[in-house]
Structure of phosphoserine transaminase:
Amino acid sequence: AQDRVFNFAAGPATLPEKVLLRAQSELYNWGGSGMSVMEMSHRGKEFLSIIQKAESDLRTLLQIPPEYSVLFLQGGATTQFAAVPLNLCSPDDAVDYIVTGSWGDKAAKEAQKYCKPNVIWSGKSEKYTKVPSFGDLQQNPGSRYLHICANETIHGVEYKEYPVPQSGVLVADMSSNFCSKPVDVSKFGVIYAGVQKNVGPSGVTIVIIRKDLIGNAQGLTPVMLDFKIHDDNNSLYNTPPCYGIYMCGLVFEHLLEQGGLVEVEKNNKKKAEILYSTIDESKGFYKCPVEKSVRSLMNVPFTLEKSELEGEFVKEAAKEKMVQLKGHRSVGGIRASIYNAMPLAGVEKLVAFMKDFQAKHA
Ligand code: PMP
């Protein structure tokens, strides 16, 4: 549709047009039920069919092994910063965090309330531009898990492979690269993600957890944070975010229609490649500080050598219907988030604009 912009926001973020139009067509009367998904009982057969299909399509997409549960929860990934330690360890247990950006940092800080987290590596002194080499990592003996943030949304640092924990299980916050590429779920104890970047509207948080890790929550764990409660009740212990789950389901269907995550990753690589090469070939006019081998396919942060032009860059881009390009307030500069639903045409338009802007201001 002509009146839509290219939305480079970090999240909530752009959704596939096809999905929005389908939701629009079903908004008023879903599947002949005579009501909107927003109006349905979460225990009725219609909504049950929606949540079951969403789960089964997600299982197909990520090839989730049967010994893992999929939970549709609320509270954002931020709630998981607490739920993970509450469910996986006792107050005296050691756990390890690798901190490659501000989300991992927040996760580690929240865990301090519920157990004994150790930050075994932090990229802070290098302004979060790296992932450590795994061979140098030393976990604490007896640690219950090793936590990583698979893609740091603000700093644009993304793991391309994953460390194998020396102790405990691997836990990953995949909020900003969830379903952007195939992932071997069996390497993880827990994967969690707020869905509002790649797979739906805000309000849904997906947790994929190995079943044997469920059922050991600390006594003071609120019921809403207890994985066992949600697992035993198929994510229907209380009223779930029904409409958001429905939207995620439409996105999963759409990703499957595109050929699944192998194809999705190919598209994402192509988009990231043209954007990073425009930055790298700009003779320093644009700069991305992140080490090349771990640059995110999803969030591309960059600065202008003439930083005083950044405001104008954002404003001029918005005039051409490319919006939300301002970097996170904590780091400044520019950030282009190019999640699954950002079409190649959007990135092509952005790089054409960047070259033009450079020619005008070099
Ligand atoms: N982790 C990552 C990697 C994120 O990008 C975000 C949101 N930007 C969060 C956690 C926090 O998510 P929420 O706002 O859903 O709590």
